[in-house]
Amino acid sequence: MHKSFYYLWSSISFGKLALSLYTMTITLTIFSITKSATFASVIMLTHVIGKLLSSFVFPLVTENKPLKNILTVSLLTQFIIISALLGALNINVNQVIQLTLTYALIGLAGFMDGFVSPSRMSLVPEVAEEAKIGKANSLISTADQTFALLGWSLGPIAVNFYGGMLKAFIPLN
């Protein structure tokens, strides 16, 4: 396997872990702000709807742009959106405006995440030897599920343990 495969493999793995922790943290924050399980549960729904919408746009974008550029722009944009999301949770405005902005940013982050997953998987043949593509896909799939399991099972423990620090970082109105 090429060295670039291992970079791709680790980015997919840690991306899955980060998504689960990000989702839990934002869900906890929204629940703390609204005291509503319904509003908190809409977080993942909004992310998935954004991701679904991007699946319709992705084929059009790949006709004109290289996959590495799509992946780079998507990841950078997600970082900017998540930074803006932290800002949206820190502003002192009407709660309706704050939640609308938060859900819009989460949907946009989901939209950009919809470009990341297929771009990464499409890059596997470029970074793995042809004879080892099956092994590469198997390693990625195993790591993907393992990190998702770790994130969703150990994540609540971490969020519970560091919840006080989270509340210090994101003031709750």
From TrEMBL:
UniProt key word Transmembrane: yes
InterPro entries xref list: MFS_trans_sf
Compartments where located: Cell membrane
Keyword Methyltransferase: no
Record membrane topology: Multi-pass membrane protein
Domain of life assignment: Bacteria
GO cellular component: plasma membrane
Annotated TM spans: 6-31, 38-58, 70-89, 96-116, 147-170
Keyword list, A-Z: Cell membrane, Membrane, Transmembrane, Transmembrane helix
Listed name of the protein: MFS transporter
